[in-house]
Structures are given as structure tokens and as C-alpha cells.
Write a structure and sequence with these properties.
Blueprint (H helix, E strand, L loop, with lengths): L6 E6 L3 H5 L2 H9 L3 E3 L2 H10 L4 H9 L4 H19 L1 H6 L7 E3 L9 H15 L4 E6 L2 H12 L4 E6 L2 H20 L8 E6 L1 H6 L4 H24 L1 H8 L6 E5 L6 H11 L5 E5 L1 H12 L11 H8 L3 H37 L1
Parallel strand pairs: 1-2, 1-8, 2-3, 3-4, 4-5, 5-6, 6-7, 7-8
């Protein structure tokens, strides 16, 4: 039903268990999942508390590889497996859907050159055309993303929290494609930009219903800017040369209530050229609603939320949300490296 609205449905979850058990393949076949993003905190938990990665960690440690090197290789192994699984979707959709989005170290979030090198290295090492590399929407990240796309690396812009941050990401995408077009290169380079609507609910002190609507109001404002861009002569010139839109991705609520935030977003933000991404819990909640036939454009009015936003410094709030989320990602990344080092030591001692 969401696909009929022109929206892709992606899963924000990638672990080795999901691949080895065939669970991800079932989600693709039975629930219409058409793409995937890898979540750092989920991978951290899988490495810290599970056993699926133990053998690989022990082998890599035995080869003398550092935790950073081991993590890089573990990530590549997972995303290559997932990208191959979605390759059929990617081909059938002509490259519109079927993407797998992989993270690079958030420790590089304010290092433009470091981000560019890491993104290019990951894409070249994976050698999968339907792989997107995640680059955060920081000032340095925008620079790195534009350079990466100019070089033909598909990019997923993350950590965007406002329509203005989205516009900056989109403008960099257009500049990169224009640079390729002017150089006689193919302007078709895949890219998506994630706007985290769910984080706005957590940032608001309003009543629960209004909190949920605040993020949707932000999403609607960004989508209006998105459609205006697609109508612009600047984009039409690139489109005629073979470029594709940089799809707008609605970030899911993570561990939030899938019965509220995610369902409202699925209803209110089901729109052409967009992607709805969420956790396994969210996916199952949306699937249950679809089976019951109750997923349809939400009838709620968002005028109150828009009125409240008129009195809020949206950009200052978006900057704070980005900083808070980035700190959380850095913490998870460091904990993941520590977990790899600890597991390697324990496994070596046990053997």
C-alpha cells in the first residue's frame, strides 16, 4: 500500500543474524522491504551481546588486525551480503530502490577529507553498485558528500533535522551532478537524504499528540521544498541528461512507540519519491496496520504544530538535535570498538 503511494519501505537494521537466518530475505519477500540502512547502535549490541560475530572477530584478531580494521571488514561483509540480496530489487526498479546504506566512523563527522577518504574506500572495497555510504549532514559532511558524489560514490546524507539542512544537502547534490555533467560524465549517481522527523517528538515539551505532529510538520515543509526543487529548471536540465532525484528519507522513531510516531509518519508522509525507514518493530507495526487495511493518508490537521513551529527557532533546535545524535553515535562507535577488542581477548584466551 505504501509502494502504491510511490514510497519505498526500508529497514533500519542490519546484523549477521538477520542475514544468516534468512529473516531479511523473508522481510523482502513477505513485507515488501525494498532497502536497508545499517544502524550503529544495533550493530554494537549484536557484537557486544551476541555470538554471531565471534568467529570472525577471533580470526581477524589472529591475523593481527586492530579493532578498527576488524570493524571495517565486518561491516563490509555484512553490507555486501545485504546488497546482493537487494540486487534484484535494484535492477527491477532501475536503480530507484534496492539500496543498502552503510555507515562510516562518526569520529570523522567534522573531518571533510577523512569522510571523503573513508566513503570512497568503503565503496571501492565493497564493489556493489547498490551501496550507499552514510555521510553526516555536518558542515564538513556536506563538503565530503559533494566531493564523493562528484567522484561517482553514491551517498546517503544523514543527521538532517530541518528543511534548511535538507536544502543544503540537496544543493550540494545538484552541484556535484552539474560538475559531472559539465565534465561529460554520467550524472546518474544514487543518493538519498534522511530527515529525522521522530527526533522532533523527543525534543518537544508539548502534549503527546502535538509532539508527534511537530516532526510531521517539519517533514511536510521539507517535502514542499523537495517538490519545488524537482520542478526547477536547474533540476530539469540534469534530469533530461539522465540524473535521478535524491530521494527524501523519513527517519523512523528507533526505539520509540511504533503505534504512534511511526504509524502517523507512514500515514501522513506517504508521498511519491520518498522512503519510509524504521526498525523491525516499526516494520511489523506498519505491516499489521496494512493487513487490517487502515494505512491511509492521516486525516489529522497539522496546523497547530505548524503554529507552534512559528514560535520555535527551528534551525537552532535542529543543530542541537544533530549534536546530540552525533554524540550518541560516537559513544556507540567507541563502545563497539571496545567490544571487539574485549571479545578478541576473551576468545583468544579461551582458545
Amino acid at each position: 500500500m505504501l509502494h502504491d503511494e510511490g514510497q519505498g519501505l526500508w529497514l533500519d537494521h542490519l546484523t549477521r543474524d538477520l542475514l544468516t537466518t534468512g529473516t531479511l530475505a523473508r522481510y523482502v519477500e513477505e513485507l515488501g522491504v525494498t532497502g536497508l540502512t545499517a544502524d550503529v547502535s544495533i550493530l554494537r549490541d549484536a557484537i557486544s551481546h551476541g555470538s554471531a560475530y565471534d568467529g570472525a572477530i577471533q580470526n581477524k584478531a589472529g591475523e593481527g588486525k586492530s579493532p578498527d580494521e576488524s570493524l571495517f571488514e565486518l561491516s563490509i561483509e555484512d553490507v555486501v551480503w545485504a546488497a546482493d540480496l537487494f540486487r534484484g530489487v535494484w535492477k527491477r526498479s532501475g536503480g530507484v530502490d534496492g539500496w543498502v546504506s552503510a555507515p562510516i566512523s562518526p569520529l570523522l563527522a567534522h573531518d571533510a577529507m577523512g569522510l571523503l577518504v573513508a566513503a570512497t574506500d568503503l565503496f571501492l572495497r565493497a564493489r556493489r553498485p547498490n551501496l550507499l555510504v552514510q555521510i553526516p549532514g555536518t558542515k564538513e559532511g556536506f563538503v565530503a558528500a559533494e566531493q564523493a558524489i562528484s567522484g561517482g560514490v553514491p551517498v546517503h546524507l544523514t543527521l538532517l533535522f530541518s528543511p534548511e539542512q535538507y536544502r543544503e544537502a540537496a544543493d550540494g547534490y545538484l552541484r556535484a551532478l552539474e560538475r559531472r555533467f559539465d565534465a561529460g560524465l554520467d550524472p546518474e549517481v544514487g543518493s538519498v537524504a534522511s530527515l529525522s522527523v521522530a527526533r522532533w517528538a523527543a525534543a518537544s515539551r508539548d502534549a503527546r499528540e502535538l509532539r508527534n505532529h511537530a516532526g510531521i510538520a517539519i517533514g511536510k515543509k521539507a517535502y514542499k521544498a523537495y517538490r519545488a526543487l524537482l520542478r526547477s529548471p536547474r533540476w530539469q536540465r540534469l534530469f533530461k541528461a539522465g540524473a535521478r532525484p535524491q530521494r527524501l528519507v523519513w527517519g523512523g522513531p528507533g526505539s520509540g512507540d511504533p503505534g504512534v510516531s511511526a504509524i502517523l509518519a507512514a500515514q501522513a508522509l506517504a508521498a511519491p519519491f520518498t522512503v519510509n525507514v524504521g526498525s523491525v518493530r516499526t516494520l511489523k507495526a506498519i505491516a499489521a496496520r496494512c493487513v487490517a487495511g487502515v494505512v491511509a493518508p492521516a486525516p489529522h490537521s497539522y496546523e497547530k504544530a505548524l503554529e507552534r513551529l512559528a514560535g520555535v527557532d527551528v534551525e537552532a533546535t535542529a543543530a542541537r538535535l544533530q549534536d546530540d545524535t552525533l554524540r550518541s553515535l560516537v559513544k556507540s562507535w567507541r563502545e563497539m570498538l571496545d567490544a571487539i577488542a574485549s571479545k578478541a581477548a576473551v576468545l583468544e584466551k579461551a582458545s
